[in-house]
Design goal:
Number of strands: 9
CATH class of the domain at 8-129 and 201-299: Alpha Beta
Helix content: 25-40%
Strand order of the largest sheet: 1-2-4-3-5-6-7-8-9
Strand content: 15-25%
Shape: globular
CATH topology of the domain at 8-129 and 201-299: Rossmann fold
Distance between the termini: 35 Å
Structural class: alpha/beta
Number of helices: 11
């Protein structure tokens, strides 16, 4: 096992991806959104690594991955690079967890038959609901305004707007989100990445209807970028999905509510990916639950302390 902060590199057709690889067990791949990096998984990755091999790549053009000027950065290309990286690491079957744009990449991996056995989508890019208004504003930035100050101001504004309680993230954490977009070359790649988000590749609900893997969806009730109506549509399009709607949360659930969704993701993967028994008596002391398909969604909690809920399955409960 290597330290969470340590990054390795793997070559793909677009360039080298930086990635973290921790834990042992069945693989789980964590895919970040834009303009974020592997840092967004700082709390969830260690939790999952107690039972899974957790692989955390940084998408091409972001984080510490290569930032080529000539490789495509659209979602289908990103899915291809991640698939190539996993093949190089000897990973044939895995669960994929994606936040925002990373959720779009995770969907494409599953639709392309790359080897996805379970999906968790968190405030995900989906259907025809992207790029967001904020991304379209970035795409319209004149070349003479493509400067670090504008990028940093935009990221700060997105974090404030995208969180129901901006105080959940501190100054040091904000600085960690800004770091991958500091410096002239990285500023240029910020705008290149943003302009690659073209809204293509996810707008066919009939494709999602063909998914036959378990899918867990988490969404903030107050998400200003992808409203909860998008979550309803996504849930309706995927016959094997379960939707958890979190009241009082916005878009950045991994910053706002990881203590709520983290244990539930762990349990969902145990039940639906590993198909392992509950194990109430194991040494970890973690009390597990079963999550199943429900119509049409379940509100998870009135507050984050009430994190554990059981949803009956279609065959009569757990």
């Amino acid at each position: 096992m290597i330290a969470l902060g340590e990054k390795l590199r793997v070559r793909t057709s677009g360039g080298e991806l930086a990635y973290q690889d921790i834990g042992d067990g069945p693989p789980v791949v964590l895919l970040h959104g834009f303009p974020q990096s592997a840092y967004v998984w700082r709390d969830l990755a260690p939790l999952l690594s107690s039972r899974f091999r957790v692989i955390v790549p940084e998408l091409l053009g972001s984080g510490d991955s290569d930032r080529p000027s000539d490789a495509p950065l659209d979602l289908p290309a990103q899915a291809r690079y991640v698939g190539e990286a996993l093949a190089a690491l000897g990973v044939a079957r895995f669960a994929a967890i994606g936040h925002s744009v990373g959720g779009g990449v995770a969907q494409l991996l599953a639709l392309d038959g790359v080897g996805v056995d379970a999906l968790v989508l968190i405030s995900s890019t989906a259907l025809d609901a992207w790029p967001t208004f904020a991304t379209r504003e970035v795409q319209r930035t004149p070349p003479d305004q493509e400067v670090e100050l504008l990028v940093h101001s935009g990221i700060r504004a997105a974090l404030r707007t995208g969180m129901a309680d901006p105080d959940r993230i501190d100054v040091e954490q904000v600085a960690r989100y800004l770091l991958p977009w500091s410096g002239d070359d990285r500023v240029a790649s910020f705008f290149r990445f943003a302009r690659a988000l073209d809204g293509a590749g996810l707008n066919r609900p009939e494709d999602l209807a063909e998914l036959d893997v378990p899918v867990l969806i988490f969404w903030g009730e107050d998400d200003p970028f992808y409203p909860a109506e998008v979550a309803e549509r996504l849930n309706a399009a995927i016959p094997t999905s379960t939707l958890g709607l979190l009241p009082g949360c916005g878009h950045f659930l991994l910053d706002e509510a990881v203590e709520t969704i983290g244990p539930m993701i762990y349990e969902y993967l145990r039940a639906r990916y590993l198909r392992a028994p509950h194990g109430h008596g194991d040494a970890s002391g973690v009390v597990t639950i079963q999550l199943e398909r429900h119509p049409p969604w379940v509100d998870l909690a009135e507050d984050e302390e009430d994190a554990w809920h059981e949803v009956d399955d279609q065959e009569g409960g757990t």
